[in-house]
Specification:
The protein has 312 residues and is of the alpha/beta class. The chain contains seven helices and 19 strands. Strands 1, 2, 5, 6, 7, 8 and 19 form a seven-stranded mixed sheet that branches. A five-stranded parallel sheet has the order 10-17-11-12-13, with helices on one face. α5 links the parallel β11 and β12. α5 packs parallel to α6. The mean pLDDT is 96. The structure holds NADPH dihydro-nicotinamide-adenine-dinucleotide phosphate. The site of NADPH dihydro-nicotinamide-adenine-dinucleotide phosphate (NDP) has 15 residues, from α5.
């Protein structure tokens, strides 16, 4: 059976940066692209906050460049999805698309996280045209405009506060009659005159000709005093949580209560030597491409050290 020195799961900034470093270190890494080649960034349009691009860069273009850079140093990129992982013995054994089995001495898990969406057809329809799950990525495009943020947790409050610094007005759409966020975050929201909190509200749909122009909402859904109304908005931001793509490793790697892979402090080392977690699958907090890229670099450096120490 094929035994790779370094196998990288995921093709976002973490996966490709790990590949660039592993490739240059002569580890002949193989990247498995996974379900979303290029990762979460391919869901956005332009990236303006990645250092080195004074004019910004198209997200897909940047991911293509990262891939080419990884390939330049001997990375092989394969299109397949990991469906099973056995980390109980060295070398590790991974199954792809339920059929091909590959072993590896070191594994970099860079499978990312997926933002949760409400499941409305309009979220798909307007994706990249007013619907976003990342205020830091896309907020800039809504300067002096009106936006809505959905959610009542810390992320929603943080995103609403961030957007209030740019936008003319921010609606915070909360399904319950209270915020789940910490007191400090709540205070920031309540003390910001640009933010209007719409408690007990759910989104029914979005409308607009060439992009989002508004949202259909319902207050106190299913109650006798249920009330349907519309708000005019230019942007609709989801902040109802993220799901780390770590299910394959449950029961094998230490995960936190949400499912993020636990690492050894700021290093990407997991509880199994030779297995590293990089990017959003291990980062509930920053969730930025530049941070993911940096952790991919660290993972490759750790893998190299491990292989050297084990004479592999
Ligand atoms: P949370 O799970 O804490 O909150 C999710 C929010 O989205 C809740 O208000 C929830 O409503 C709402 N929600 C979920 N599903 C739906 C739905 N279908 N329709 C409408 N609303 C929905 O996620 P966060 O991303 O906010 O936070 C994740 C973790 O990260 C938390 O532990 C948080 O404390 C932490 N964090 C900390 C920050 C900080 O300290 N600065 C910043 C960001 C995150 P409901 O309350 O009704 O369940």
């Amino acid at each position: 059976m094929e035994i790779l020195r370094t196998l990288i799961l995921g093709s976002g900034p973490a996966g490709y940066t790990a590949a660039i470093y592993a490739g240059r270190a002569g580890l002949n890494p193989v990247v498995y692209e996974g379900l979303q080649p290029g990762g979460q960034l391919t869901q956005t349009t332009e990236i303006e906050n990645f250092p080195g691009y004074p004019e910004g860069v198209d997200a897909n273009e940047m991911m293509d460049d990262l891939r080419k850079q990884a390939e330049r140093f001997g990375t092989e990129v394969r299109s397949a999805v990991c469906t099973k992982a056995d980390l109980s013995a060295h070398p590790f054994t991974l199954t792809f698309d339920d059929e091909s089995v590959v072993q590896c001495h070191t594994l970099v898990i860079a499978t990312g996280a997926s933002a949760k969406y409400l499941g409305l057809a309009d979220e798909e329809k307007y994706r990249g045209q007013g619907v976003s799950a990342c205020a830091t990525c896309d907020g800039f495009f809504y300067r002096k405009r009106v936006v809505a943020v959905v959610g009542g947790g810390d992320t929603a409050c943080e995103e609403a506060t961030y957007l209030a610094g740019l936008a003319k007005k921010v609606y915070l759409i909360v399904r319950k009659d209270y915020l789940r966020a910490s007191k400090a975050m709540q205070d920031r929201v309540f003390n910001n005159e640009k933010i209007e909190v719409l408690f007990e509200c759910n989104t029914l749909g979005l409308f607009g000709e060439d992009g989002v122009e508004g949202a259909h909402l319902v207050r106190r859904k299913g109650q006798p005093d249920e009330e349907k109304f519309d708000i005019a908005i230019d942007g609709f931001f989801l902040a109802i949580g993220h799901r780390p793509n770590s299910e394959l490793f449950r029961g094998q790697l230490d995960l936190d209560e949400i499912g993020y892979i636990k690492t050894d402090g700021p290093s990407p080392r997991t509880n199994i030597p030779g297995v590293y977690a990089a990017g959003d699958v291990a980062d509930p907090y920053y969730r930025q491409a530049i941070v993911a890229a940096a952790s991919g670099c660290k993972a490759a450096m750790e893998a190299e050290k491990y292989l050297q120490a084990e004479n592999l």
